[in-house]
């Protein structure tokens, strides 16, 4: 490993900086709030911070080492490895923080794990707050595997940490009725039933609410939103986001919820035809896309804020898709646990669910979820952010949950979401951030 400065963990703050260097000037002023000075860290919304962080990282490449949103101070914090980059970052409106470990060094640690040093039941990601690769080991990791992970960490010059997480990493799909296939705790909602816990995990049976086609045929389902239950045989997942594909209505959900050709209904009895998967990607990534069986069906770009039918009502309109950012406050809607909230804790995470099911490039959060919530919508205000994949724990004990980035799914499928597709929402946002209170 290369030699690093002993004082490099201190924060770097520049007062009275001049004109921004390189291309960074182009991303400075659109993020400032009215009346603020044009130098030093600026308050901004999470969407603006995410856009700025991405651009600063691209402009400075190897001289940055990750970034995060300080939600309390409402500012972007960018890790840098030299003072020249720190000055450019400060001049652009973010806070620069000099760190020990470079992006390249941290990538070597992640590559070591990916190339055989990891174990099933573990997850890892670069934590920009600690400037280390953070490894989580679930309850299935035995003492020998735990010792192996710690031995690897010991050889990484302080760039890798290992800790336990409660529960077992699992994909969060469930069966259509009263239980999930995995062992764990669950909510057990179904057709208006209350929450409960059991050895078979979570289950949400939407039941046959009388809206089916009657004997001998299927009716086309309409108005199914993000977070609502979707069924394929005995399996239940949650719809992610309604989209359009070549002008036709469709939706995104998790890849592990079915293979290409899988037909979904909106009811457990299978009477209300919804859509058929045209593409499904799992493992490595975890998303799938379906086209609606009725090309004229309504498919509002919105998330259901009451997917359990508890009478709370309300929807959240989705106008576009946004990149996630560490520190971003998000919500998740799913058919087992309804709407929960929390914070993005890491990006580009890898999780090994076991049996060869390894997914990469995930968004890691502390938002709880349970079996049956797979595919459900994670969003920040009116922006789609992620599709629920899996995690550990439950909504009683808490835990980690991993999400497929929506922007990557949109790019791969060519689908569009909301008013302007995946990137349009970000482009339209520039220059329109006025409220500190909108920082999510």
Automatic annotation (TrEMBL):
Record bears the keyword Cytoplasm: no
Low complexity composition bias: residue spans: 425-440
| GO biological process terms on file | proteolysis
The UniProt GO MF terms for this protein read: serine-type endopeptidase activity
What are the positions of the active site? 256 (charge relay system), 286 (charge relay system), 374 (charge relay system)
Region span, Disordered:
172-219, 414-440
Q: What's any one GO cellular component for it?
A: extracellular region
Q: Which residues form the Peptidase S1 domain?
A: 251-409
The cysteines covalently paired via disulfide bonds are 237-257, 368-395
From start to end residue, where is composition biased (Gly residues)?
A: 174-217
Is Disulfide bond there in the keyword field?
A: yes
Signal sequence region:
1-25
The entry's keywords? Disulfide bond, Hydrolase, Protease, Serine protease, Signal, Zymogen
Where the record annotates domain Peptidase S1A alpha-lytic prodomain, the positions are 101-154
Q: Which family does it belong to?
A: Belongs to the peptidase S1 family.
Protein name (record): Protease
Q: Which organism is it from?
A: Streptomyces abyssalis
């Amino acid at each position: 490993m290369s030699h690093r400065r002993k004082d490099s963990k201190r924060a770097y703050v520049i007062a009275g900086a001049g004109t921004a260097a390189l291309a960074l000037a182009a991303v400075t002023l659109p993020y400032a709030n009215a009346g603020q000075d044009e130098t030093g860290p600026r308050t901004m919304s999470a969407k603006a911070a995410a856009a700025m962080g991405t651009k600063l990282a691209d402009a400075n490449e190897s001289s940055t080492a990750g970034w995060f949103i300080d939600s309390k101070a409402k500012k972007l914090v960018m890790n840098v490895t030299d003072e020249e980059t720190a000055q450019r970052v400060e001049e652009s409106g973010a806070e620069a923080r000099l760190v020990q470990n470079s992006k390249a060094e941290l990538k070597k640690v992640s590559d070591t794990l990916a190339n055989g040093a990891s174990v099933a039941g573990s997850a890892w990601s670069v934590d920009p707050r600690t400037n280390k690769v953070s490894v989580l080991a679930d309850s299935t990791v035995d003492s020998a595997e735990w010792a192996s992970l710690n031995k690897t960490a010991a050889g990484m010059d302080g760039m890798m940490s290992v800790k336990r997480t409660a529960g077992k990493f699992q994909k969060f799909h469930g069966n259509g009725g009263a239980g999930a296939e995995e062992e764990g705790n669950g909510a057990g909602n179904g057709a208006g039933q209350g929450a409960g816990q059991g050895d078979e995990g979570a289950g949400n049976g939407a039941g046959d609410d009388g809206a089916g086609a009657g004997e001998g045929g299927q009716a086309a389902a309409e108005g199914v939103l993000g977070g609502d239950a979707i069924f394929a045989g005995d399996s239940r997942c949650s719809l992610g986001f309604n989209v359009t594909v070549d002008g036709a209505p469709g939706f995104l959900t998790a890849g592990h919820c079915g293979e290409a050709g899988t037909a979904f209904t909106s009811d457990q009895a299978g009477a209300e035809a919804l859509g058929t998967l045209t593409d499904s990607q799992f493992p490595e990534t975890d998303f799938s896309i379906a086209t609606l069986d009725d090309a004229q069906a309504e498919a509002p770009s919105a998330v259901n804020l009451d997917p359990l039918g508890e009478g709370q009502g309300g929807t959240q309109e989705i106008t576009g898709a946004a990149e996630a950012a560490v520190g971003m406050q998000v919500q998740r809607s799913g058919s087992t646990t309804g709407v929960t909230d929390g914070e993005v804790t890491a990006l580009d995470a890898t999780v090994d669910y076991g049996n060869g099911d390894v997914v990469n490039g995930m968004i890691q959060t502390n938002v709880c979820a349970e079996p049956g919530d797979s595919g459900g919508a994670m969003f920040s205000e009116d922006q789609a952010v992620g599709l629920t994949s899996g995690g550990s724990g439950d909504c009683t004990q808490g835990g980690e949950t991993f999400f497929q980035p929506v922007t990557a799914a949109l790019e791969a499928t060519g689908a569009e979401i909301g008013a302007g597709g995946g990137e349009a929402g970000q482009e339209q946002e520039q220059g329109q951030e006025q409220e500190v209170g909108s920082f999510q």
